[in-house]
Design a protein that fits this description.
The complex is a heterodimer of chains A (429) and B (314). Chain A contains 16 helices and four strands. With 429 residues, chain A is mainly alpha-helical. Chain A is elongated, with a radius of gyration of 33 Å. About 2% of the residues of chain A have low confidence. In chain B, helix 3 crosses helix 4. Chain B has 314 residues and is an alpha/beta fold. In chain B, the strands form three sheets. Chain B has a six-stranded mixed beta sheet with strand order 6-7-8-3-9-10, sandwiched between helices. Chain B has a four-stranded antiparallel beta sheet with strand order 2-1-4-5, covered by helices on one side. Classes of the chains: A mainly alpha (429), B alpha/beta (314). The interface between A and B is medium-sized, with 21 and 25 residues.
Amino acid sequence: MTVHLRKAIDIALKDLIRSFRNVFGLVMMFLVPILLTAMMYFAFGTLFRGDGGFDVPLTRVQVANLDVPSPQLGGFSAGQILLEFLQDESLSNLLQLSEAPDEASARGAVKNQTADVAIIVPSNFTAAVLEPEGTARVTLVQDPTLTLGPSIVKGLVSQLADTFSGAKIAAGTVARQFGQRGVPVKPQMFQDIATEYATWAAEVGQARADGMHPALDVQAPLSKAEPRSWGAEVAGLVMVGMMIFFAFFTGANTAGTIISEQENGTLARLFTTPTTHTAILGGKFTGVFVTVLVQVLVLTLLTTAIFGVHWGMPLTVSLAVLALVIVVSGFGVFIISFIKTTRQQGSVLGSVLTLAGMAGGLFTTSLSTPPRAFEIIQLLTPHGWALRAWKLALAGASAGEVALPVVVLLGMGAVFFAIGALRFRKRFA
Amino acid sequence: MEQRKAVKVHDLYKDFGDVHAVQGVSFDVHAGEIFGLLGPNGAGKTTILSMLSCLLEPTQGDALVMGHSILSDPMAVKEAIGVVPQDIALYPDLSARENLIFWGKMHGMRGPALRQRVDEVLQITGLTDRQKGRVNKFSGGMRRRLNVGVALLHKPQVIFMDEPTVGIDPQSRRNILDSVKDLNEQGMTVLYTTHYMEEAQELSDHIAIMDEGKLIAYGTHDELVQIVGEQDRIDVSINAESERVIKQWQETEGVHKVSADDGTLTLLVDDSNIVLPRLFESATQAGVRITSVEIQEPNLEAVFLHLTGRALRD
């Protein structure tokens, strides 16, 4: 190792130590991004459970089943089917069902707030289901202060009513066609057709509840990422934005130590030692690179540990880290080369990096389909390209799939660094 | 036989735009001596040291440090020198020891030799007990001492000290002045800039007096004092504006120079015993009351006053 290279490394190490002794710097590097991510995580955490399901409060339902069963069909009761449907085990985490002896009791329960919803099944419910032109009205009474629970109950009742209607239509159509051909339709056949339709309708309903429609052939997505919880996914997206935003701040602030060293006289003192300008500036720039690298690595590891974020394939993430660190270092050197004093530094960095971050989409990372014009603006900034690389990594993309943003970032980093380094060499010539 | 020269400054100029900071300065610093560069603020002392430290390139002229040109061989010059800048140039968030180790490495020192030398420098600067303390917790005097210590790490042949005692307590000032003498006794050549006449007088073997970018006098202390001959210097305080007596005193027999500064008048006179009654008399005639009088033997202050017509503190 040459003497000058060792001196450059010594300068970089010194800057690294100073960076990590700066309490304000540490807060901005690690604590603020983590806190902002945590705020978003816990804000959504009330909606998202660890297993990915919704935490919806239990709805207390009282059913006054006044339905009269059909004696011709062996005591078939549509009201009883509705009751059993709502008592299904799969709904036990949503509904707490109890029966009321009459309509007044059910209504009274809602009024007294011992129930959230009352369902009043009319006495002609079965008859309406069985008779081709028959109609009946199921009444829902709800606590007016509630929205979600009653909506779920209404949806479930509507779903079953639709099934009855569908079965009735199916059985009626079959009966009509049999009648046109002169074939008599027995009541049992009518019931069998209705039951068969109801079974089919139930299967379709279950498939849709699982997020698929039986008529659609959904291909596996590009992503090979492991299944994640919504909370972790939100935390990952927010952290990508925060990490990139604060990495640019760290890069520029660390590069800004050139200015502070100039003001404090240590840079001039360095120039009086037998150390080349290349080694001094090279050491300062290496310090920027290493500081940002440590920040990005720590943030990714902390986010995984705290929020369970899965960052994607190791090679892809490594490329995203490298590209981010290089573009951040280059941009930091570039922007600081235009700044003369530490007083300028604070205001210029605050405005430029915030504007660039906004244009790069760092504060709207959860937008899956931003407007086209905004997408174009994003790609004019290094922040936007960094966001693209990290979002791809987060989605489980392969190394080849992040190649374009990584190459663009490396290119941008090299250009920024070259311009900044040339300006500094000229300034300190 | 001519003494070996540690520093040879030849016809050095430095312009900053229209400002001519240094104008054709030449002097020699002999190896092993303490050389004082004396002058008021803005005289060009720091600019000369910056050029000798290879921080600034001269507009014209050249200088040799231990035989190496500041223009053609700056790296060799930097290896030969230690620089104590006027302002504290240390890393406040590093400890005294960490600062010394870092600066030692910048001078190419490594390993046990560096650690041993750091211990020695901590001893010299009296900071051994505070070596692990961060510099931002140090007093002004401790920082000044460490600022000097950094320049001693690599045992330079020549040390440039730019007003190293500005703004510190008397104890730290004494410590630094004693350190300078010790270093010199160990064979180190010291080029020391100051605007304190007493420091230049106490430390320097040779003194160059600068004013407005030009070297106006050069020699040993005794040689310089000879310029003003047997003239006494009188500092007079009055209870009124100096304009009321300054003209009369300039015309008083036996008075050579009069300068005014902040209620105090400084005069160079042939014989204070004869001149002083005349000053009292003209002051009384002008309605001015003399509140204090101080008579000093010929010194560098008097030399500066004699050469420029202004007191060194102006």
